[in-house]
Design brief:
globular, mainly alpha, 2 strands, 16 helices
């Protein structure tokens, strides 16, 4: 496959041979588990330097678990069933802009950036460097820190640029991937709505939802909160990117509280997540992310959350 097609994002997302009959997200009886597994194939990506080799999507289970958490919260919030079906599909694909993530290279770039206090999200970058043209944070990063990356033996090529774009240029990267997969989604019987892309961008670009409907913003807040809750309990991500030695429900909720204090997650969404933390199905998702049960300290913290919630509601 030509390299230019790879770097432009115009790759073939899945093998279309022996295509199964379309499954319809709006039909009530489609094989939903098979549909979700099929959607996760969109995270697989052709290797830029090894013909016929596919880079498996990184940690697809994170997307699966995040979507499950989001579905539970959206249901508790009272959103209609058909909307929740579309929402769960968007949540399954929320990391699509990172299809092609090269784990060693991605980790090396962003571990180095974190160590040096360099912003890793577009809104944080623009706060520190307000003169950066909107949407050109990737180019600004390379211009400012390119020489330092080369000293770390990180080549300044199109593949490195793609890894940087997966964070600082996530909106642009996501749009490239969506252009590729939308025709396939249509063939699968899935209706893609503009609001689905908006919620996928909210964590990095909250300003894009400034004029969105209240329910769209609430679903976006839910995705951010659930994605972070899963990530803080995800052992694989903790090992790969955060040099974390343990997972903690307390630390996860402290971060969710920071998102609330920053106006990213509303009180209502945070309260519903607290309510659901006692459900066996909700806890199972988090223990699956860890690969082991919650600690006694985690259990005590959840009990404290419930007591605080009861006091607030009394």
């Amino acid at each position: 496959m030509p390299t230019s097609r790879f770097f432009g994002g115009d790759h073939r997302p899945i093998d279309t041979h022996q295509r199964q009959p379309p499954v319809h997200a709006k039909s009530g009886g489609y094989p939903y588990t098979r549909l979700k597994k099929k959607l996760l194939q969109f995270y697989d990506y052709p290797h830029p330097f090894k013909p016929h080799v596919i880079i498996p999507g990184y940690d697809k289970s994170h997307a699966w678990r995040t979507a499950s958490l989001c579905k539970a919260v959206a249901t508790q919030l009272g959103h209609p069933v058909e909307r929740i079906k579309q929402y769960e599909i968007a949540c399954l694909l929320h990391d699509l802009g990172r299809a092609g993530l090269d784990q060693p290279l991605f980790g090396k770039i962003w571990s180095w950036a974190k160590t040096h206090g360099i912003p890793t999200r577009p809104r944080e970058w623009r706060t520190l460097y307000p003169d950066t043209p909107y949407g050109h944070e990737t180019e600004a990063f390379l211009e400012r820190y390119g020489q330092e990356l080369e000293r770390q033996h990180i080549p300044l090529d199109a593949w490195t640029t793609a890894q940087i774009e997966m964070r600082l240029g996530f909106a642009r990267r996501l749009r490239k991937q969506l252009r590729v997969v939308k025709p396939e989604l249509q063939r699968m019987g899935i209706t893609w709505a503009p609001w689905m892309e908006l919620i996928m961008l909210y964590y990095y670009y909250p300003e894009k939802l400034r004029h969105a409907s209240r329910w769209v913003r609430q679903l976006a807040e839910t995705l951010v909160a659930c994605e972070q809750l899963e990530a803080y309990n995800n052992r694989q991500r903790g090992r790969d990117y955060y040099t974390r030695s343990h997972e903690s429900v307390c630390e996860a909720f402290h971060y969710l509280q920071q998102l609330h204090d920053g106006g990213i997650v509303s009180e209502r969404v945070l309260t519903v997540i607290q309510q659901l933390m006692t459900r066996t199905s909700f806890i199972k998702i988090l223990t699956d992310a860890r690969g082991k049960p919650l600690t006694q300290r985690d259990v005590r913290y959840i009990q404290t959350l419930q007591k605080d919630l009861s006091l607030c509601q009394s």
